[in-house]
Specification:
Layout: E1 4-7, E2 10-13, H1 15-22, H2 24-37, E3 60-67, E4 70-76, H3 78-84, H4 102-114, E5 117-125, E6 135-144, E7 150-160, E8 170-179
Antiparallel strand pairs: 1-2, 3-4, 3-7, 5-6, 5-8, 6-7
Helix pairs in contact: 1-2
Length: 242
């Protein structure tokens, strides 16, 4: 039975509250990302600190864009490895999906990078002998790289039910695409690089070797898809700090 909560003349769906209770890791990662961006189109990859999502690190991951509509897993929590039954670092995110869902996934990721947009997906696992029913949710949200480009993504994948025999892959049942606040493509200038050089762009202390975290590596205003952003940064010779 579908139940809605009436408030004044508006009808408020209870579905978000139910999903938050069912997939708390997704809600926590999304809230963390929203706090980081703080009204901007997106935060920077360097701002991500695993301590902010320490309770749900096993469900979290970071993607790197390698081609239009394609991204690979730079770091990933243990839950993703359990679902596929293997180490997932370096694999494309599409490896978590059934073949018939991969084109839709590619379109969604490209929208997230270019609009920019955050995305929530409701997923259903493949079933069969020793593979019981499995539901899941995935959250994807873009991040800026060191040059200010949206080439990284923070995400989370959480399933409910017994995993059974791996690998488990998913079909996409529902998708919620949310274009972000701020002028499309209006990325702030990249933050100044730290004096101490890192051995890897993703080797943020705590994320790569967090004891209980990621495995082996290191407001919703509208829903209209926007065109690819164009970025033009102009600096004056008189500006300080350039």
């Amino acid at each position: 039975m579908k139940i809605e909560y009436l408030k004044g003349s508006n009808i408020i769906s209870l579905k978000p509250a139910r999903l938050q209770a069912k997939f708390p890791a997704i809600a926590q990662v999304e809230a963390y990302w929203e706090g980081l961006r703080n009204g901007r189109p997106m935060p920077a990859r360097a701002e991500v600190d695993p301590r902010g999502i320490s309770e749900v690190l096993e469900y979290a991951f970071v993607l790197e864009k390698v081609a239009p509509g394609m991204a690979r897993l730079r770091v990933a929590g243990r839950h993703l490895a359990d679902l596929l039954g293997m180490e997932v670092r370096g694999m494309p995110l599409s490896a978590m999906f059934l073949p018939e869902a991969r084109k839709q996934l590619a379109r969604a990721m490209e929208t997230a990078f270019t609009s920019p947009a955050s995305i929530r997906m409701t997923l259903k696992g493949d079933t069969g002998f020793t593979r019981p029913a499995l539901e899941a949710q995935m959250f994807l949200a873009p991040l800026r790289d060191e040059e200010g480009r949206p080439t990284r993504m923070l995400g989370a994948l959480q399933s409910t039910g017994k995993i059974g025999r791996a690998p488990r892959r998913f079909a996409i049942r529902e998708m919620d695409v949310n274009t972000l606040l701020g002028e499309a493509g209006a990325m702030p200038p990249p933050a100044a690089k730290p004096r101490a050089a890192r051995t890897s762009r993703d080797a943020i202390p705590g994320l790569a070797e967090y004891a209980t975290g990621l495995a082996a590596a290191p407001r919703r205003p509208g829903r209209t898809r926007l065109g690819a952003p164009h970025l033009e940064l102009v600096y004056s010779a008189d500006d300080k700090g350039v």
